[in-house]
Amino acid sequence: MADVFTGWMWNVGMFERAVIYPIMIGHALLGSSVAATQRRHTTDPLPPLDARLAS
To answer: What is the value of pTM for the model shown?
Structure first.
């Protein structure tokens, strides 16, 4: 419909996809990195407090 109303001779959906796909990919990468961080923290127990303070 945007093509009809604006008179543009090219596909407007191409620009919509060019904008939204990087956002979707960024959200997927952010979610996977947060999930990986959560998994790493739940599987690796914390060292004793005195070992953490010594470093």
So the answer is: 0.53
Backbone phi and psi for residue 9, each to the nearest 5 degrees, phi listed first: -100, 15
pLDDT tens column, 20-47? 999 999 999 999 999 888 877 666 666 6
Contact 52, 46 (CB under 8 A): yes
Q: Following CA atoms 15, 18, 19, 24 in sequence, which dihedral angle do they give, to the nearest 10 degrees?
A: 140
CB-based contacts of 8, cutoff 8 Å, min separation 6: 2
Sign of the alpha-carbon torsion through 27, 32, 33, 39: positive
What is the distance between the alpha carbons of residues 25 and 39, in angstroms, rounded to a whole number? Answer: 21
> Which residue is associated with the tokens 């620009």?
15
